[in-house]
């Protein structure tokens, strides 16, 4: 096993953090990432290093040695608060003066405290009557890509890895983010619009945790590979089911319940922190 440490730190700090794992050597991946080779990855050591790294604002990942990005066939990513920095539904609700109410429901759903489908239905209902032009305004004025999104998408293309944006959010945004990052697939909810206004309903089935998992499995089947050939990343409880079938699951700036179950957690690095995990 290797230990990858990423963040703004000097070599002395990295050496001190890695010491409990007794690495055979420490290699520089780039200016903000180091590979500690041949480490002790017992539960006790992992717990000690994870706690120290979190306090130092360093991402620490124990990962099988030799894994490369090209060993995978699909990179599947959640959108809201993962590939982009906002929760789109919260920002849409702000146009109705309802952001605090909707954001509170979103947060509880992402922590796994509320059923996602029911919470989405409840939140979308509050948007009834809003001018559909608000969607474009949110995209233009508030939607920003997370750090490293473009670099990660480009690296996946270069490695021959297909890309999927799968979201409990809305196609209005996934379609545009997919095009912006030149991704291969996207799947999300469709907001119903009538006479230029939101009806407060979603068209068709809701993209919940089960549908996200099915989507990853469906795309892998189309590619002719098992789901373990997928890297899956997300931040909320509704991402856990699709992350559970992946060969590598990555929690990005995620809720504690997600960090606890993921193979890797990027709490401080950008999305392209994945690349350091799989660099050779």
Automatic annotation (TrEMBL):
One Pfam entry name: Hydrolase
**Top-rank lineage group of the source organism:** Bacteria
State which pathway it belongs to. Answer: Amino-acid biosynthesis; L-serine biosynthesis; L-serine from 3-phospho-D-glycerate: step 3/3
**Alphabetically ordered keywords of this record:** Amino-acid biosynthesis, Hydrolase, Magnesium, Metal-binding, Serine biosynthesis
EC class, as a word, reads hydrolase
PANTHER family linked to this entry: PHOSPHOSERINE PHOSPHATASE
EC code:
3.1.3.3
* Listed InterPro entries: HAD-like_SerB, HAD-like_sf, HAD_sf, PSP
Species this chain originates from: Noviherbaspirillum suwonense
Q: What is this protein called?
A: Phosphoserine phosphatase
Similarity-based family = Belongs to the HAD-like hydrolase superfamily. SerB family.
| Catalytic activity line of the entry | O-phospho-L-serine + H2O = L-serine + phosphate; O-phospho-D-serine + H2O = D-serine + phosphate
């Amino acid at each position: 096993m290797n230990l990858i440490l990423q963040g703004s730190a000097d070599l002395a700090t990295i050496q001190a953090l890695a010491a409990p794992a007794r690495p055979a050597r420490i290699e520089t991946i780039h200016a903000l990432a180091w590979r500690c080779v041949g480490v002790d990855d017992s539960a006790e050591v992992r717990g000690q290093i994870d706690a120290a790294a979190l306090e130092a604002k360093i991402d620490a990942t124990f990962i099988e040695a030799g894994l490369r990005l090209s060993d995978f066939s699909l990179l599947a990513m959640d959108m809201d608060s993962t590939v982009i920095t906002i929760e789109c539904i919260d920002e849409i609700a702000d146009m109705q003066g309802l952001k605090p109410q909707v954001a509170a429901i979103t947060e509880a759903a992402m922590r796994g405290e509320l059923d996602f489908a029911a919470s989405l239905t409840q939140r979308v209902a509050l948007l009834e009557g809003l001018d559909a032009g608000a969607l474009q305004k949110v995209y233009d004025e508030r939607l920003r890509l997370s750090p490293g999104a473009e670099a990660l998408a480009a690296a996946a293309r270069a490695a021959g890895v297909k890309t999927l944006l799968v979201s409990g959010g809305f196609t209005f945004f996934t379609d545009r983010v997919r095009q912006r990052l030149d991704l291969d697939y996207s799947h999300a909810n469709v907001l119903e619009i009538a006479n230029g206004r939101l009806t407060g309903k979603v068209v068709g089935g809701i993209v919940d945790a089960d549908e996200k998992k099915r989507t990853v499995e469906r795309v892998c089947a189309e590619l002719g590979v098992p789901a373990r050939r997928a890297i899956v990343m997300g931040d909320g409880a509704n991402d856990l089911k699709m992350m559970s079938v992946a060969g590598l699951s990555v929690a990005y700036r995620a809720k504690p319940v997600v960090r606890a179950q993921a193979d890797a957690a990027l709490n401080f690095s950008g999305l392209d922190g994945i690349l350091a995990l799989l660099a050779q």
